[in-house]
Write a structure and sequence with these properties.
The complex is a heterotrimer. In chain A, about 40% of the residues lie in helices and about 20% in strands. Chain A has helices at about 1-25, 40-55, 70-75, 90-95, 150-160, 165, 175-185, 195-200, 230-245, 245-255, and strands at about 30-40, 60-65, 85, 105-110, 115-120, 140-145, 170-175, 190-195, 205-210, 220-225. Chain C has a domain at about 20-45 and about 70-195: Rossmann fold. The chains are: A alpha/beta, B mainly alpha, C alpha/beta.
C-alpha cells in the first residue's frame, strides 16, 4: 500500500512538469530528461532525481517506471526517453542490437541480491535457504520464473540447493513482486524470495537470509543513454551520478549492492 | 500437455455456480417486490464485486479468508480448512465475482413475474414452499437459466481475484485463465493458444446452447403474453 | 355468514365498510378506484386492513394487525381479474392444483363441474391455447375445485365479449345454486350487477353509499326504483 501511494504521488509529480513545460516557454526553458527505469528502482531514483535537480537548476527529470521488458518495448515503439535503466541484461542487449541506445554509454550501475523474507508471525523462522527443505512451512512465495525476473533467479537458487522439486507443491507464484510481498506480509505464505531492494520497500517483512551470489546468475542493472536523446550530455551526467559514489550510496540505502 | 487446468476450471466453475445459483435465487426471491430498511444497501453490496477491479476484490478476499483473516483464521482453527492458496480459494473468488450476475438475473426474473399468479396459488391453499416450487421457480426459470449460464461463464473466466487468493501453484491451483496469462507473459504462444481455444469453445458452446434453449422454450411464454 | 367491519387508510381516501352476508350473491358495485378490489383482498388475506374484524362463521380471518390468518388457512376462493391461470400447466393441472382430496366423490363433483362449464374437452390444453371465455371457466373450475367456503370474483367477466358474458353470467348463477356458498362479485357494470346480485352494495370512495336488493329477487324488501 505504501508503495502504491508513493507511485501515485510520483505520477502526480511527474504530471506537474508536463503542465509547466508549456508555460515555461516564456520564461527560462528547462531541459527535460525522461528516464525509463525498472520498477525496483522507484525509491532510489526518486531520491536521486531530487539530488540531481538541486545541482542542476536548468534540468528537470521525469520518471517512468515499469517492468524492464515493457519499457524496452516502449522505446522500440518510439516512446520518448533519454535514459534506460534496466533490471536485466537481456533487455539492454535487445535495444543495443537495434541501435536504439548509445552503446558506449552502457554501464552496470548496480546489483541486486536475492533474500529470503518472512513475516513476524512465524515463531522460529529459518535462518538460511538450506533450511527451507526441512522447515515446517505451508507455502513459500516467489515470482513466476518465466515472467518475473526475481522469480527466475529464485528458481536458480532453489535448483542449486536441490530444493526446486521437493518444494514444488508449496511454491506460490506471484505475477509480480508486489504480490509476493503481499502474501508474506499477510502471513499467508510463511516465506518469500524477493530482491533485497523489494524487501526494503516493505516494513512488514524481515530478511532472514541472503542468497550466495554464486547460486544464481548475477542480477545486474545496466543503464544507458538512449540514441534519440535530446540532451545526451545531461543524460550522461545523470548516469555518472548514478554509477558514482553518491549514486551507489543512495542505492545501498535502498537495499542494492 | 497437462490437462489439469481444464479439470480444475470445470470443478471450480461447477461448484461456484451451484453455490451462486442457490444463494442468488434465495436472496432474489426473498427480496423480490419487497421494500425494507437497508434493502438498497444490501443490494449495492451484492453488486459491488461487479464494479470493483478484480485485484481489489482479491485483496478484500485475502483480508477475509487469509490464514490470519477474519474468516480464514476461524475456519483454520475450528475446521482445519485453509482457503488461501488452495482450489477452495478459486471457488470463493468465482462465487464472489459471479454472484452479482446471478442475483441480478434472478431479481429481474422474479420482479417481472405477475404476482397474481403466485397469489392465485396461495388462495388455492398452497404453502409458500409449494408456491415457490411449482409456480415462482418454473415461471422464473428462463431468467434463472440466463443467470446460471452467465455465472458459469464468469466463474470459468475469473482470473484477477483468483490469482490473489488461490495463488499460482502449478498443478494445484492453475485454472485455465491463469495458464493463459502466464503462457502469454512468458511468450509460450502455443500453450496460450491451446488454452484460449479451449476456453473460447467452452464459453461459446454454453452461450450457443442457452440461445437455442431459450428460443425453444420461451415460445410458450411469448405466446402466453401475446394472447393477453 | 361472512361479517366484514374494517377500516383501512388508502392513498386517496379511507376505506370504511361494514357488511355481512349469507349464502347469497353479493355484488360490490362502484366506479373503478372505489375500493372494491381492496375489500376482496382483505377478505382473501392478500392485504391487511388497519383495524376491524373479518369473520366467516366462527372462523376469525382478521381481528387486528397481529391477529391475521394466513391466505392458505382461510380457504377463500378467488377469481382474479385476468384469471391468473398458471401458464406452464395444462388446464387439468390448473384445476387439480388446489384439490384437497382426490376420492371418487370428489372426482364425480369435478367431472360434473367440468360438464356444466363445458371445459372437459380442454383438459390437455395450455392456457394460451384457449379463448378468454374458456379461461374464465377454467379459473372458476380451479377455484371451486379447492372447495372454498366462500368465492370472491374480481371483475370476472370484464374481459369477455357480450355473448360470452351473458353465457357466463347464467353459468355463475347456476354454479351458485349448486355450490351454496357466499359469492362476492365485484363489477362496475350496472346491468351485470343487477342480473347477478341477490344484493348490491354501492361503493364510492371507500364507503357504502347505498344498498339494494336485486329487482330480480322476489323478496318483500325488493325495491324496483331503478
Amino acid at each position: 500500500m505504501k508503495k502504491f501511494i508513493k507511485t501515485m504521488l510520483l505520477l502526480a509529480i511527474a504530471a506537474i512538469p508536463l503542465g509547466c513545460a508549456n508555460k515555461g516557454e516564456e520564461g527560462m526553458k528547462k531541459k527535460e530528461i525522461a528516464i525509463s527505469a525498472a520498477a525496483s528502482l522507484t525509491d532510489a531514483l526518486t531520491e536521486l532525481k531530487n539530488v540531481y535537480e538541486d545541482e542542476h537548476d536548468d534540468v528537470f527529470i521525469t520518471l517512468n517506471f515499469g517492468s524492464s521488458r515493457k519499457l524496452a518495448t516502449q522505446i522500440e515503439q518510439g516512446a520518448t526517453a533519454d535514459i534506460f535503466l534496466s533490471a536485466s541484461l537481456d533487455d539492454m542487449e535487445r535495444l543495443k542490437e537495434q541501435g536504439l541506445i548509445n552503446e558506449s554509454t552502457i554501464v552496470d550501475f548496480t546489483e541486486n541480491s536475492l533474500v529470503l523474507i518472512t513475516n513476524n508471525v512465524v515463531q522460529i523462522p529459518v535462518s538460511s535457504y538450506e533450511q527451507l527443505g526441512s522447515a515446517k512451512s505451508d507455502h513459500i512465495s516467489m515470482g513466476e520464473p518465466d515472467t518475473v525476473p526475481s522469480g527466475r533467479y529464485a528458481k536458480e537458487v532453489l535448483e542449486h540447493l536441490q530444493l526446486w522439486t521437493p518444494l514444488q507443491d508449496k511454491l506460490v507464484m506471484g505475477s509480480d513482486v508486489r504480490q509476493v510481498l503481499t502474501h508474506v506480509e499477510m502471513g499467508n505464505a510463511d516465506y518469500g524470495i524477493v530482491y533485497a531492494s523489494d524487501a526494503w520497500s516493505s516494513d512488514k517483512v524481515t530478511v532472514v537470509a541472503v542468497a550466495d551470489s554464486s547460486w544464481h546468475s548475477n542480477i545486474i542493472y545496466p543503464g544507458a543513454v538512449v540514441s534519440d536523446s535530446n540532451y545526451p550530455a545531461e543524460a550522461q551526467d545523470f548516469l555518472d551520478l548514478l554509477s558514482g559514489k553518491k549514486g551507489s550510496a543512495v542505492l545501498q540505502k535502498y537495499g542494492f549492492k | 500437455m497437462d490437462y489439469s487446468p481444464l479439470m480444475l476450471s470445470l470443478k471450480v466453475a461447477a461448484i461456484s455456480t451451484t453455490v451462486v445459483f442457490i444463494s442468488g435465487v434465495f436472496f432474489a426471491r426473498a427480496f423480490a417486490r419487497k421494500q425494507f430498511f437497508g434493502k438498497s444497501v444490501i443490494e449495492a453490496i451484492f453488486i459491488l464485486p461487479l464494479v470493483l477491479p478484480p485485484t481489489v476484490v482479491g485483496f478484500a478476499l485475502l483480508l477475509l479468508f487469509g490464514k490470519h483473516g477474519w474468516i480464514g483464521k476461524w475456519l483454520l482453527e475450528w475446521f482445519d480448512v485453509q482457503i488461501v492458496f488452495t482450489w477452495l480459494g478459486a471457488v470463493i473468488a468465482s462465487i464472489v465475482v459471479s454472484f452479482p450476475l446471478m442475483y441480478q438475473s434472478a431479481a429481474a426474473a422474479f420482479n417481472s413475474m405477475d404476482d397474481r399468479i403466485e397469489n392465485a396459488a396461495r388462495t388455492l391453499g398452497a404453502s409458500e414452499w409449494r408456491v415457490f416450487r411449482t409456480i415462482s421457480f418454473p415461471l422464473a426459470w428462463p431468467g434463472l437459466l440466463a443467470g446460471l449460464v452467465l455465472s458459469f461463464a464468469r466463474g470459468l473466466g475469473e482470473f484477477g481475484a483468483t490469482l490473489m487468493i488461490a495463488g499460482y501453484i502449478p498443478g494445484k491451483t492453475d485454472t485455465i485463465p491463469m495458464s493463459i496469462y502466464f503462457a502469454v507473459e512468458s511468450g509460450q504462444m502455443e500453450k496460450a493458444v491451446f488454452w484460449v481455444v479451449i476456453i473460447v469453445a467452452l464459453g461459446f458452446s454454453t452461450i450457443l446452447w442457452l440461445n437455442w434453449w431459450s428460443r425453444r422454450n420461451m415460445l410458450r411464454y411469448a405466446n402466453e403474453n401475446r394472447s393477453r | 355468514m361472512l361479517e366484514v367491519d374494517i377500516k383501512k387508510r388508502l392513498s386517496h381516501y379511507n376505506l370504511e365498510v361494514d357488511f355481512s352476508m349469507g349464502d347469497e350473491i353479493l355484488v360490490l358495485f362502484g366506479p373503478s378506484g372505489s375500493g372494491k378490489t381492496t375489500i376482496l383482498h382483505t377478505i382473501v388475506g392478500l392485504t391487511k386492513p388497519d383495524e376491524g374484524t373479518i369473520k366467516l362463521g366462527d372462523k376469525a380471518f382478521y381481528s387486528g394487525k397481529k391477529d391475521s390468518m394466513s391466505v392458505q388457512a382461510r380457504n377463500v376462493g378467488m377469481l382474479f381479474q385476468d384469471y391468473a391461470l398458471f401458464p406452464h400447466m395444462t388446464v387439468e393441472q390448473n384445476i387439480q392444483y388446489g384439490m384437497k382430496r382426490k376420492d371418487e366423490h370428489r372426482s364425480f363433483v369435478i367431472g360434473q363441474l367440468l360438464q356444466v362449464l363445458g371445459i372437459h374437452q380442454l383438459l390437455v390444453k395450455y392456457p394460451h391455447q384457449i379463448s378468454g371465455g374458456e379461461k374464465q371457466r377454467v379459473a372458476l373450475a380451479r377455484a371451486l375445485a379447492s372447495e372454498p367456503s366462500i368465492l370472491l370474483l374480481d371483475e370476472p367477466l370484464s374481459a369477455l365479449d357480450k355473448q360470452t358474458r351473458i353465457d357466463c353470467q347464467n353459468e355463475l348463477i347456476r354454479l351458485h345454486e349448486m355450490w351454496k356458498i357466499p359469492f362476492i362479485i365485484v363489477t362496475h357494470d350496472r346491468e351485470e350487477a343487477e342480473k347477478l346480485g341477490d344484493r348490491i352494495l354501492f361503493l364510492d370512495h371507500g364507503k357504502i353509499i347505498d344498498e339494494r336488493k336485486s329487482p330480480y329477487t322476489d323478496s318483500p324488501h325488493s325495491t324496483y326504483s331503478y
